[in-house]
Each structure stands twice: as C-alpha cells, then as structure tokens.
Amino acid sequence: MAASDCMLGKIGYGTASEALAYKLPFVFVRRDYFNEEPFLRNLLEHHQSSIEMIRRDFLAGHWKPYLLRALTLQPSYDGPTNGGQVAARILQDIAVGKKCASDKFNGARRLQDAIVLGYQLQRTPGKDVGIPDWYSLNGTEIGAHPIIENTEKIKTAESCCEDFEILHGDLQGLTDTMAFLKSLSGLTGNELKDSEVQSRERTAASVLFDWEREIYVARAPGRLDVMGGIADYSGSLVLQMPLREACHVAVQRNHPSKQKLWKHVQARQLENTGVVPVVQIVSFGSELSNRAPTFDMDLSDFMDGDKPISYEKAREFFCQDPSQKWAAYVSGTILILMTELGVQFTDS
C-alpha cells in the first residue's frame, strides 16, 4: 500500500489503519452486515481519506470518476501509528477512571460501561466485587434531562421554522416535524449552521434541494401492532395504536437540467445519454443500521421499452445491493404510480 497512489477495496481494520498511517486515499465499496464498518468509515472520512463507490458502479467497471476524485484528497491523519501501545494506554486510563466521560454515547463512556459490566459479572455470593468509585449513575452522566412543559417545547420548536414559509398544511404543534424542518434548514450549501462535523448523509442531502422552489414534507406516524397486523384490510380484528415516533419525508421535483446531481451521477449521465430524469434519495439515521445512506437511479431503469418493468424485475433490481434494498420502499412508489395509474414522470 505504501507504494500506491490510492487503494480500492472494502473497509477492514487492517486496510483502514494502513491507509491512515500512509495517508493513502481509499476508495471503498460497502460491506454488508459488517457492524464495525460505520466506525471505520467515519474515521477515514474524518481524516479526509476515503470515498465510497456505489456498488452498481463497481460491478459495472465505472471506476474512473471515483479514482480521479480520490487523487484530489489530502488525508490529514497525523496521529500515532503504534496502535497496540495507544490502545493499551486508553484501556488503562479508562480502567482507573482517569478520563471519565459523562456522555453515555461517548466511546470512552461506553468502554467504562463495559468495564463495570465486567465487575458485575464477577460477583458471586460471599465475594462481592465493588464498582469503581469513579463510576456513578447520577442524572447528569446518564444523559437525563429535566422535563420541559409541552408549551415551552412547542414555543421553542416554532422558532425553528422561521426559515420556511408554509404554503399549505399545518404543523399541528408536532415538535418532531418542527425539528425535521430545522434539520432541513441546516442543509445550506455544504456547511451546517453549527460547528459540528457534517455526516456523510447530511453532506449528500445538502446538495439535493433548490431552496427557492417548493418542498413537500409529509409525516407518517408509526404504530404499535399488538394483534392483527396487515390483516385489517380484510376485516380482521386488530389492536393497534399510533406512536409518537414517525417517519418524515421531504420531496422536491425539478427539471432534469436543473436538478443538482452527485458527482458519480453526473459522470454516469455524461457517459450515457446525457441529462435524464433521476431519483436521488438520502436516508437519515443510516448510521444506526446497516443500510447505505444514499441511493440513486435513472428513471429509465423503470422502463422496458415504452412500458414499465414488472414488479418481479423491480425486486431483482433493488436486491442487487442489499445495503440499498431499503430504497424500494421509497422509489418503488414511482413504479406503482406508473404501472397502476399510468403516471408519466419527466422530472427528477
């Protein structure tokens, strides 16, 4: 690797470490069901060392735009490379409580939790092992927050919608919808309004919208399914209740010539037929699961001649990449409208 200009492959502990150590640009293809990948990918991206190649482009040999982009990266890792000693020092510091973190999602705090769990598992009758003094479960450390009155929450959240002019509909005082609008308003250019490092999914989403045009936002509440499930359509007895948790979607239609495209989509269109309608989707929260945060396709992929493709072929299309299979729930609605109602889509 030290003799290479860049590397193309899958993310693993060894390759990620070596790429950082040699400041080597790394073009990677997502691995399915490799739970450690998000942490390694975040580490590489934090040090400006990596670019993800869409698996469809990898299998099709469409590598050139990714490799050219990789050669422009300037990896910034300047940390130590004696990994064994560094890891041992971190474990030692945390084990004695030298670096006690209060954030329960902090890596150090989670390691502390694991150490304390080890203490607890050693407990046997008559031989109790005490938990270290530095570990305390007070309200501050476990992330507990004081209860805020609903009126205060709504008043605070309403101020987050100042960047949008609501032309139709009503927020109904839903704080999660207001928070979603706030997250959209933060997608200005390629920078967040706060000082946090922008995640890959927010970087991808920041270039999608034309902020001078209408954006449609919808909210679908989740439901607790105790009995009946999807059999309710046939008249079966059901026991269900909507939940506070919900799914939010923001959609915008643009003429293909005015749609902002990701770089690999631009390259694909230049090599093929030029500007055509596309679908580009970003899924927030992908870091909490094993799904890819982005998906894109040409709308022509849904056509077989002058007719829409069959649902069977559509399933095969979305199953090509398991990490992007989730996109069928979103873009699949387009195919249903084309097939069942004869809707024709000419916009991106």
Characterization of the model:
Residues 214-253 form the Galactokinase N-terminal domain. It holds the Pfam family GalKase_gal_bdg. GO terms for molecular function: ATP binding. This is Galactokinase N-terminal domain-containing protein. Keywords: ATP-binding, Nucleotide-binding. With 348 residues, the chain is of the alpha/beta class. The protein has 3 domains: 1-129, Rossmann fold, CATH 3.40.50; 159-188 and 216-251, no CATH class; 253-347, no CATH class. 33% of the residues lie in helices and 14% in strands. The chain has 12 helices and 9 strands. It has helices at 13-21, 37-46, 55-59, 64-70, 83-95, 107-121, 150-158, 175-185, 200-205, 263-271, 311-318, 328-341; strands at 7-9, 26-28, 50-52, 216-227, 239-251, 278-282, 294-298, 303-304, 307-308. A 3-stranded parallel sheet has the order 1-2-3, with helices on both faces. Helix 7 runs parallel beside helix 8. The chain is globular and about 65 Å long. The two termini are 41 Å apart. The model is unreliable at 137-149 and 190-197 (pLDDT under 50).
Can you describe this structure in just a few lines?
With 348 residues, this protein is α/β, with parallel strands linked by helices. Helices cover 33% and strands 14% of the residues.
Q: What share of the residues does DSSP label as strand, in percent? A: 5-15%
The Rg value, from CA coordinates, equals 24 Å
The CATH architecture assignment of the largest domain turns out to be 3-Layer(aba) Sandwich
Biggest sheet details: 3 strands, parallel
**Average pLDDT over all residues:** 81
Give me the side-by-side strand order of the main sheet. Answer: 1-2-3
Total individual domains: 3
Number of helices in the DSSP assignment? 12
Helix content: 25-40%
Domain Galactokinase N-terminal: 214-253
GO molecular function: ATP binding
GO biological process, one term: carbohydrate metabolic process
Protein name: Galactokinase N-terminal domain-containing protein
